[in-house]
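Worked example

This section walks through a single chain of length 321. The input is the sequence exactly as stored; nothing has been trimmed or padded.
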Amino acid sequence: MKALVFNTFGGPEVLEFTEMDNPTIGHEEILVNMKAIGLNFADIYRRKGNYHLAGKPPYILGYEGAGIVEKVGANVEGIKVGDRIAFADVPYANAELVAVPFEKAIPVPESISLNDAASVLLQGLTAHYLSRDSYAVKENDVVLVHAAAGGVGQLLVQIVNLLGGKVIGLTSSVEKAAAAKDAGAKTVFLYQDDWKKQVMEVTGGKGVDVVFDSVGSTLSDSFEATRVGGTVVFYGMAGGDPAPVDPRMLMDTSKTLTGGDLWNVLTSRAERIVRSKELFRWMEEGKVRVAEPTVFALKDGEEAHRYLESRKSTGKILLIP
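Given that input, the structure is written out below as tokens.
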């Protein structure tokens, strides 16, 4: 099979599209012929050497994708050759063939394209747990979403809306602001402006009920934009590490800081199935739509990495074998 690999840590130029041995599957695994692979910032971090990575050189990146079952392990029941499946947390996904553990195989309904499944699972399930578990969004909650034009951001905006919340988005450009508004953000402010002051003005000086912060370096600013008794959900560091949070501030303002990580939520196949079913149902009902992804051939992985790192993208980037 062909795969996108690298032997040393570094920039996009370390990536190579090369021939590799086909994976062998165990009794509890299935072999998937990949049709679409999701590219995520975690792949950038792994390529640079500052994020956990499975195996040893040559490394194969990728954890998310969708395809057709080509072979089934002896102990696997309920999945057969030809079935359409997707996954959000299986390593070595940047390849034509991937060995997928049964517990991580998520059935894809016929109404959902494999491109959409590969586009939505990692980021969609993240948006799902953020708005259901980290902070349960309620009717009329005012919600501030960082990076509202990004993959998670656009999905989070939509899910907050369908749960009855009102979204204020933050983006880095006018073009991205348009994408966030198209996703359903009522108001969008730009990072280069005095967005904290703007947020306080549109909330009558009170602040928002909850902030979903994936930037990290903005964490202290997020607290300033949050009402007394409000919540900040910290779930990413796209802009760098946050400054330490003073627990005295939390006490004095009755504010809550909570963290979020998808892998603390996807702890069983049952969890994966239940959550993905709700996400797919929302898509089928038109309540959540996936923006048209930017598509690169898997062999052009270096170019795709450069594009993602440029921060010019909105929505999802897919690699197609």
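What to look for: The chain has two domains: 2-121+266-320, 139-259.
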